[in-house]
Amino acid sequence: MKLTKSFSYLLLLVIVGSSCTKYLDKGTPDTFSDDDFWTGENNLRTYTWGFYNMFIGFGTGTTSDFYFSTFTDDQASSSFQNFDVSATATNSAWDWSDIRKANILLERVDQVPIDDAAKNHWKGVARFFRAFDYFTKVKTFGDVPWIGHSLDIADVNIIYKPRDPRALVMDSIMGDLDFAIANLRDKTAEPNAVNKDVALALKSRVGLYEGTYRIYHTELGLSDADKFLEASKSASEALMTGSYTLGENYRDTYSSMDLGASSATKEIILYKKYVLGSLTHSVVGYTNSTSKMNGLTKSAVESYLMTDGLPISLSNLYQGDDNIQNVRANRDKRLLATIDTFLCYNGHLVGGLTSTTGYRPSKFLQPASIQLAPNNETDAPIFWLAEILLNYAEATAELDRMGKLTMTQADLDKSINLLRARGGVAPLEINGTQGTAIGGIAFTDPNKDADVTSLIWEIRRERRVELMMDGFRNTDIMRWKKGEYLDSEKNPDIFLGAKITPIPEQPTNNEGYILAYSASTKRTFIDPKHYLKSIPTGQISLYPNGVLAQNPGW
Amino acid sequence: MRKLNFTGLSVLLSCCVSFAIGQTISGEVHDKTTLEPIPGANVITGQSGRATLTDMNGKFSIDLKGDKTLEISYAGYKGQRITITTDTFYLIELEPSALDQVVVVAYGTQKKANLTGAVTTVDVTKTFQSRPMNDPTKALQGIAPGLTITYSNGGLTTGPNINIRGVGSINGTSRPLILVDNVETSDLSIINPNDIESVSVLKDAASTSIYGARAAFGVILIKTKSGKKNQRTTVNYNNYFSWSKPTVLPDFADPVPELTGMYEAAIRSGQASPEVFGMQLLKLRDGIAKWQQNYAGKRSGLEMVEGEDFKFETDDNRMYFYRVWDPKEIFLKDFTNQSMHNLSIQGGSEKIAYFTSVGYSKDGGILKMNPDQVQKYNITAGINASVTDFLDINVRTLYRNFEYDYPFGYQDYWYYFWRWGAYFPYGTWNGDYFRHTPAYLAQANTNTVNDNYTRVDLGATLKINKHLSVRADYTIGRDNVLRHEVGGPIMAWDFWGIGEPKFANIATATQDRVTRKTGRYIVNTLNAYATYQNTFFADHDLKLTAGVNTENNQDIYFFAERRSLLDPNKGELALATGDQFVQSGSDIPHNWVNAYAGYFGRINYAFRDKYLLELNGRYDGSSTFSPKDRWAFFSSASAGWRLSEENFMHFIRPVVSDLKLRASYGSVGNQDVGSSWYIPSMTNAAVNWIPTGSTIRTQTVNAPRAVAGSLTWETVKTLDLGIDTRILNNHVGITFDWYERNTEGMLANTSVPASFGTSGPKINAGNFRNRGWELSIDVNYDINKDLKLYGVFVLSDNKTVFTKWDNPSMLITQNYVGKTFGEIWGFETEGYFQSADEVAKAPSQASLAHGNFVFGPGDIRYKNLNGDSVISGGKMTVNDPGDLKVIGNEQPRYQYSARIGGTWKGFDLDIFIQGVGKRDYWGIGDIAIPLYRGGPDILYAHQLDYWTEDNRNARYPRHYVGNAQTRLANMPSSGNNYYPQTKYLLNLAYCRLKNVVVGYTLPGHLLNRFKVQKLRIFFSGQNLAEISDVGVPLDPEITYGELNFIGRTFPFQRSYSFGAQLTF
């Protein structure tokens, strides 16, 4: 009997144990997996929100993009910025995670039980962001490997493939954008999210970029620049004939507490919303604290026109730069919105404020926001009409110069002259072939870059002043192949600031202009090295036999 | 409660010689050393096999049926056989015996003499008694060879890092499995140290493999006290009261030289008009110097005098602060208190035994304003009952309530406490603070975490016959954690913006909130096993164990927050009106579930207690792996040879009383690999985007992670060779172990370039090998009846080297074959450049400079190790590391401890020293690296000794503001003069006087009339002194700091305590 009892207990042990297989099936209840996620449109939308981190806007927390995009001839950064001397080991732009995410979305959408139009919309979103991400890569690195589908670890031939030619990558980007434009929902269905208009805006930007890049970077040997310029022009036109019109006030775009409901709203194609307590930035704080501000350079301030439409070198209205009142007199209203009414610098702090150049950037200020970093909640424009107008004018002028079409006064009047009108500046007139006039009188800026025509020079000026501190300038200089603009010996004005009565605390040059940096500081542009970033050496070392080639000069 | 001294010795039997047949005899069993009666001892007659137990006074009586002998045995004592004479009363004194000590091992006990695995037992009395610690883990530091316990700071709630024999895997925690009464207990602080009866540390595969699943890196087995049958009721009360103060802290500098140094450094880094909060550094310095002349020593209290202590300087439109404070005096108490009270009652009758205890402890934090505080209550109770001849049941409950109170975290208080100099405004103006840490601390709401842990264990032992028994127990553990955080406005003079300071709310919108967080941890454990034990042919002892073990656990956490409090004094969710959140940043709700199961078996065989063999096997399953890779079989074997039992070895008996050789080899699976990597899971994350119609950041689901076709258990194989001996008439015991532990198939991401788009899938890819040794020596000498001395010395070391890793380029910033775990790469420091000429002639260091930094006179000269013309990291590979080399290792090496003590009459003394022979560390942050951040924040007193033309052999190079960026990818984030290098490598070796206890036990005759059995009073000191040379003024045990700035955290403390132990 005792033996039976002991056996029955042992039997119990076995029974308890044998239910273990199911007992161990736990999975991950609080996390989706590839096997159970693709069930509905809400899931797709949630998945795609992750891509929106690419829209940096004014940044997050203690960052302050726009104002912090200082590696230009427009601003003198409080901490001196220079080109990399040697190739870096890492670069956060050399990252394919968003492309992988987009590729996976493209391959999974068909599993989701929604109609074809909806499927195509979400595929369009995936291809929009794939294009957006690759555009950043091409700008940064030139040739990059094009990865068009999600990879398995066994796909070694693709994982380790060399960089694809720029032409292939750019064609793929344009293909993605065309698909997105054809299939994305319109802005009423997807307000302030990736929609048809947002894709058009990106196409306008990408087309101009690549078209001009191919024109000026002749070393590429790519002759089809016009194809990209035409693409840009037609995308811009589609937006210009749509419902977008310029807001009344230039500064509203940059300092609005709510870009969804302000005078600037009708200009906005996509904006980034900030809400106190949830998502904030520091663009107001950095231009409103005792931290030394990244002031506007002499070069930038002098690029603004007089109200008569002429550059300072030609206009009778210019009163010189002996003091800030004179600098501001009779100027483009956009300058008045961008720099403050006083100068502040070492030894001459105004209300505790100081700037590297004396000029205080005031474009982003908003008294209704908390003034300290990182609690600023003004909304940031991502795509807006002003850039589209500038893209249109520049693409049309370049096509005109190439003889592909004839640019007309109407082209100027529906693009940059709208911006000039808002700035209180007389309209620009076309004068013959690539020439310019104001009020019927021809003029050419004596400071014009000899490499470009007067028309293109004035259109580029328009782009510079309209998009001052908006993060476009460095890319523009690179695509125009004008790296020398960033070279302090070829372009000394980029290290100079306002003209002041010299005081011991603030170094100035012989003419009394503020020196933003010590006199010995210099920045040298090396062609072609500095047109592209180095390929991260940490990545090159992962490839066998140098399959991943370094960029020229590095 | 009677203290059973397991380490005593000596045998004696005293009885009268006579003879008696067919009658009842009686007797009394005593401990030979203490002369205390032993209740519950087994008394068995020699021939008829009649058995009884001694009662609570150690007395027994038994009928003889012609028996001529009597055997008396009790765990931990050498058994006795006496010959029956004509006497009817026998006084028996049992001798405590180390060899007969019973050691708790996996699913059972084992005589220490017969152990074949590497097992260390902890002397519970000396380890836990008289030490002011409410967490048993703290007391275990340094106690057992091979058991490493470190704390990264001195916070009240800081958890330990625990490992046995060093790091076990690069994945997971490498923590040992900690079992309290056979149930996994990851946080030992739930246990009342006073309730611990025994602690065993199981180190090799042979000892642990039966636990499988999570026992890959050793097991700490803790058994809590339970009542003994036939024990009379005893009541114990003990307490302590303790006072603590910080060990080592940096000093704030005199602001005048500090600001001069900061100014020079800021100018050097290109800041044209260096300032801090708009205060121009030189103007500030001169103002402070003036203040020191006029007002130093004339100030008391916190109120600041406008125009003298601070002034609004209209030129700069900024507030300037001139008064110099003693920040440590303002922030830190001289001493903080701890106290503990513990009461236990135990006893037992013939059938039922019980144990119950209640404990309370309270620890106070070191901050002066709004200090944190821990209060802990423990209640435990257990009953064992023999319900029938063949069935014992037991029930045991454990309840722990832990309450931690702390100020609302408006900022990282320690980070900001150390951030700025002594001139910062620590005081008040019109009774209100300025915007600085004191303003927050003084006004912060007190937040609370309440952690209730309950465990109930129901068990039964079925004694089927003399040889076979079955034991089963089922335990449920429930841990409920509730956190309540209430922020709200902080009113202070805000001088951070430009212009006149405004009296305003300096808290942010996100801090105007109430948050309640709930965590619930559930664990259900079943252990059921049968044990068969028998002796065949007198010489062959066999013991078989087989059973099953399952555990499932669930960890649920959720979160509710609402903004815009109506009244911070009523911080409840229903009483706030703003946005509502269910997560914040990385604080995300979760629901984690895991399950483990295993079938196990063990065979113990002993021949004449001389040749010992043990075999273990376990078939293990874990929910961490996919169904097809889930189950695995692991086995181990160990053998021992008690050489001293051999006849041919008898000649050594006079010197060597015991000598045993041990060897074991086996494998255990590790499933603690961080995640269920086989699932292509898609984590979620917040996005920096607020969609139309929302006011909060949206969520996204990330792309699925890449998974491999197959991945399974990591296998940990251990070879252990050991020797145990007792020599010199049993006075000295020596144990030595050598081991090699290979961890094979460690999960690692496949190495892929970025084009893959995510980390390569985890595969079983890497191996490393850990070799080490452990030595333990104990000495016990009873000089005479009054004076007894003892000593314990332990020393251990291990080193882990990678033997397989997928890093074909041999990048030094990743693991590679041949890498020693924990190694630190850096430059060798050659000294300072003393002239521009020297810089020009030396190999260029230009590629190491960041920002405006240019190497010049007064800067660090890195040694040219590879002979080329530049100082660099080369390709950052083993074959081309440029001028880098391995400069140290952050794993602790040569860990040791020594305990010496003794008793003399009623006095006892115990001294415990603990240390680490070698350990390096690269610390970052301003305390270790001057002017680390980009803005000039602070120079501490030790950083005023820096290079100038007149001070060329300074402690630090010429200062420069902003040293946080490295130009070497994936190296620690410090650069310019502060790349990891030999000169500034922190030395965390130390030798510490961890604990000293002096006690006095009052003579019994003074106490008897009060019915008191024992009264002992003691004084104790913790961390009383140390020998160390860290390189910066920090405690050698510290490796943490808020925001990763080493040292900016709760300091380690010295404690002085006294207490009493009372037994009725």
List the main descriptive attributes of the protein structure presented here.
heterodimer, A: 554 residues, mainly alpha, three-stranded antiparallel beta sheet, two-stranded antiparallel ribbon, 19 helices, 12 strands, globular, B: 1064 residues, mainly beta, 22-stranded antiparallel β-barrel, five-stranded mixed beta sheet, 58 strands, 7% helix, disordered N terminus
Model description:
The complex is a heterodimer of chains A (554) and B (1064). Chain A has 554 residues and is mainly alpha-helical. In chain A, 36% of the residues lie in helices and 7% in strands. In chain A, the strands form five sheets. In chain A, strands 8-9-10 form a three-stranded antiparallel sheet, covered by helices on one side. In chain A, strand 8 (429-431) and strand 9 form a beta hairpin. The radius of gyration of chain A is 27 Å and the shape is globular. Chain A starts with a helix and ends in a 14-residue tail after the last helix. Chain B has a 22-stranded antiparallel barrel. Residues 1-21 of chain B have low confidence and may be disordered. Helices cover 7% and strands 45% of the residues of chain B. In chain B, helix 4 (255-268) runs antiparallel to helix 5 (281-295). Chain B starts with 11 loop residues before the first strand and ends with a strand. Chain B is mainly β. The interface between A and B is large, with 102 and 99 residues.
Helices and strands, with pairings:
The complex is a heterodimer of chains A (554) and B (1064).
Chain A: H1 2-18, H2 20-23, E1 32-33, H3 41-49, E2 75-76, H4 97-108, H5 116-141, H6 156-159, H7 166-183, H8 196-216, H9 225-240, E3 268-272, H10 283-286, E4 295-296, H11 298-303, H12 324-328, H13 333-338, E5 339-343, E6 359-361, E7 380-384, H14 385-402, H15 409-413, H16 416-422, E8 429-431, E9 435-438, E10 441-443, H17 454-466, H18 473-479, E11 496-499, E12 513-515, H19 537-540
Antiparallel strand pairs in A: 2-4, 3-7, 5-6, 8-9, 9-10, 11-12
Helix pairs in contact in A: 3-5, 4-5, 5-7, 7-8, 8-9, 8-14, 8-18, 9-14, 14-17
Chain B: E1 12-14, E2 24-31, E3 42-45, E4 51-53, E5 59-63, E6 69-73, E7 77-78, E8 80-83, E9 89-96, E10 102-105, E11 108-111, E12 119-122, H1 124-128, H2 136-140, E13 147-150, E14 161-164, E15 177-180, E16 183-184, E17 196-202, H3 205-208, E18 219-224, E19 231-246, H4 255-268, E20 275-276, E21 279-280, H5 281-295, E22 310-313, E23 318-321, H6 327-331, E24 336-348, E25 352-364, E26 373-386, E27 391-407, H7 413-417, E28 428-429, E29 432-433, H8 437-443, E30 446-463, E31 468-486, E32 491-494, E33 502-505, E34 513-536, E35 540-563, E36 580-581, E37 590-607, E38 611-622, E39 631-642, E40 656-670, E41 681-682, E42 684-686, E43 699-701, E44 714-727, E45 732-749, E46 762-782, E47 787-804, E48 823-826, E49 829-832, H9 836-841, E50 860-862, E51 885-889, E52 893-904, E53 907-918, E54 920-921, E55 986-987, E56 990-1001, H10 1004-1007, E57 1014-1028, E58 1053-1063
Parallel strand pairs in B: 2-9, 15-18
Antiparallel strand pairs in B: 1-9, 2-5, 3-4, 3-6, 6-8, 7-9, 10-11, 12-17, 13-14, 15-16, 17-18, 19-24, 19-58, 20-21, 22-23, 24-25, 25-26, 26-27, 27-30, 28-29, 30-31, 31-34, 32-33, 34-35, 35-36, 35-37, 37-38, 38-39, 39-40, 40-44, 42-43, 44-45, 45-46, 46-47, 47-52, 48-51, 49-50, 52-53, 53-56, 54-55, ...
